[in-house]
Amino acid sequence: MTQQTASSDDAGRPPENHRRMIRRRALTLIIIVLLIGIPAGYLVISAAQSRDSGKDKEAKYSATGLSEGWPSKLQRRLYQVPVPHPAAKVASYETNNWKTSRLYVQFETTSAGLDAFLAGVGVDRGDLKRGDITISHRDQRVTHWKFSGTGSWWGLIHTQKDPAPTRDVVVNLADPDLPMVYVVSRTTP
Question: Are strands 87-96 and 129-130 parallel, antiparallel or unpaired?
């Protein structure tokens, strides 16, 4: 019979007792769970957040027509639509395609707010023409705007060199203290 000799590593070490073996295995299990569990948990949370974000974006971009609320600061800057303060009944809608991007905005403001808006566009009240509905029938259909009802309609088109946006503006001055402003700002990428 052959006898096995103890390896040099095990030579001076007493045999492992049962308690120490359980502790070592438990520690190994905890380390494995942490190394696998934490990244897996992170992936699950990240996937859920990503899915929720996608649903929010889908709802936002599947909207058809005006949505109540202010356009984002980025949209206002890109399309050069300086919505004044104070403004009420604010609604907006953005469309994009390979040829033209448009931002539709409506808001009610004060007389001073209208002057501030027009100055921000680079025009003044003298540039408005009575009875000039400058927003096309196509854009009116997109937004469901109707400029045929009662009102004192004034309009202008502010054309700029590309890539700066061109803005079609219609103002209802039926109540000069609270004018209603309609803007279509379009740009060619």
Answer: unpaired
Q: Which residues make beta-bridge pairs with 34?
A: none
Sign of the alpha-carbon dihedral angle for 82, 84, 85, 91: negative
Three-class SS of 105-137: EEEEECHHHHHHHHHHHCCCHHHCEECCCCCCH
Q: What is the pTM of this model?
A: 0.66
Alpha carbon distance 91, 124 (integer Å): 23
C-alpha to C-alpha distance for 91 and 47, rounded to whole angstroms: 32
List the strands of the sheet with 180-187, edge to edge. Answer: 67-68, 87-96, 101-109, 180-187, 166-172, 153-158, 129-130
74-91: pLDDT as tens digits: 999 999 999 999 999 999
Residues in the chain: 189
